[in-house]
TrEMBL record:
<keyword id="KW-0805">Transcription regulation</keyword>
<dbReference type="Pfam" id="PF00126">
    <property type="entry name" value="HTH_1"/>
</dbReference>
<dbReference type="Pfam" id="PF03466">
    <property type="entry name" value="LysR_substrate"/>
</dbReference>
<comment type="similarity">
    <text>Belongs to the LysR transcriptional regulatory family.</text>
</comment>
<keyword id="KW-0804">Transcription</keyword>
<dbReference type="InterPro" id="IPR000847">
    <property type="entry name" value="LysR_HTH_N"/>
</dbReference>
<dbReference type="InterPro" id="IPR005119">
    <property type="entry name" value="LysR_subst-bd"/>
</dbReference>
<feature type="domain" description="HTH lysR-type">
    <location>
        <begin position="1"/>
        <end position="59"/>
    </location>
</feature>
<dbReference type="InterPro" id="IPR058163">
    <property type="entry name" value="LysR-type_TF_proteobact-type"/>
</dbReference>
<protein>
    <submittedName>
        <fullName>LysR family transcriptional regulator</fullName>
    </submittedName>
</protein>
<dbReference type="InterPro" id="IPR036388">
    <property type="entry name" value="WH-like_DNA-bd_sf"/>
</dbReference>
<dbReference type="InterPro" id="IPR036390">
    <property type="entry name" value="WH_DNA-bd_sf"/>
</dbReference>
<keyword id="KW-0238">DNA-binding</keyword>
Length: 294
């Protein structure tokens, strides 16, 4: 195991705060992960982690070591791209993005990109959870929400307006709320990627949040939307996703007189000056696509 591999393992353990989780993700025995960390500590004569039976945490020196290690890992990842096919129109692009953006916006329009680059493979990591560009070795990530990451380039697209919606069946059952004060008498569909249980759900608007009871908790956007369509509760989804349901009469928009929440949409990239032309063209094409569809 060379030093670069050991540094990659160290970065993953630091991010996961777990030797076991890092071993599972890498498909390695835990002993290999332990050896990698111990050899780095021995070589640099520094304690990188505080270890207990329940938790792993970076020491102060470990935090400083991580900042330098992650820079090196990213730089070496970019160097490994510099092969003959990078200069041609053949290669691959791995992108992380929310599942509904992938299925409703990117995939239906990919053929237009393939007309220009038929030999480029696009690998989509469509997940409701945040995709981690560094940890998952992705080329770019589309993020909905605030972004703070000093190691990445942030390319802002435009805000996504969040609509509040309910099905005709739900409104026939419980009536349409005329103002936010009536929401405690209604139900939301609660949504958490990690199935985090809480007593009340929340509906978010630009200037306020309102706690509201719920009858169902789901962990992905497909189930969330289907629950709204089925009349189980009020949901909030981006305008690009909601518009077709509203036009077809499957959902009705609520509280149109109250300023809606807006979430920034951004493309995240590693900070490098030289990129294959097919990749740079893909980013420009995706930027334009998202601006039009959002």
């Amino acid at each position: 195991m060379d030093k670069i591999e050991r540094l990659k393992i160290f970065c993953l353990v630091a991010e996961k705060q777990s030797f076991a989780q890092a071993a599972v993700q890498l498909g390695l025995p835990r002993s290999n992960v332990t050896y990698a960390i111990q050899s780095l500590e021995k070589e640099y004569e520094v304690l990188l982690f505080y270890r207990t039976t329940r938790k792993v945490a970076l020491t102060h020196e470990g935090n400083l070591f991580y900042e330098e290690a992650i820079r090196l890992v990213v730089q070496l990842k970019e160097l490994n791209r510099f092969k003959t096919h990078v200069r041609s129109q053949e290669g691959k692009i791995s992108i992380g993005m929310p599942k509904r953006l992938a299925t409703q916006v990117l995939i239906p329009n990919l053929l237009t990109f393939y007309q220009r680059y038929p030999k480029v493979k696009v690998l989509i990591n469509g997940s409701d959870d945040f995709s981690n560009l560094i940890e998952q070795q992705l080329d770019c990530v589309v993020r909905v929400g605030q972004v703070q990451d000093e190691y990445l380039l942030i390319r802002p697209i435009k805000p996504a307006t969040i609509w509040t919606l309910a099905s005709p069946h739900y409104l026939a059952e419980l009536g349409e709320p005329k103002n936010l004060d009536e929401l405690p008498q209604h139900f939301a569909v609660d949504y958490h990627v990690a199935k985090h249980y809480r007593e009340l759900s929340e509906l978010e608007f630009r200037d306020q949040r309102v706690k509201i009871p719920y009858r169902l908790l789901v962990e992905n956007t497909e189930a969330y939307i289907q629950a709204g369509l089925a009349g189980i509760g009020i949901i909030q989804i981006p305008e690009f996703d909601a518009k077709s349901y509203v036009e077809q009469g499957q959902l009705q928009r609520l509280f149109t007189d109250i300023p809606a929440l807006e979430l920034p949409v951004s493309i995240l990239l590693t900070d490098r000056q030289y990129r294959p032309k097919y990749f740079q063209d893909f980013i420009d094409w995706l930027d334009d696509l998202l601006k039009r569809k959002l």
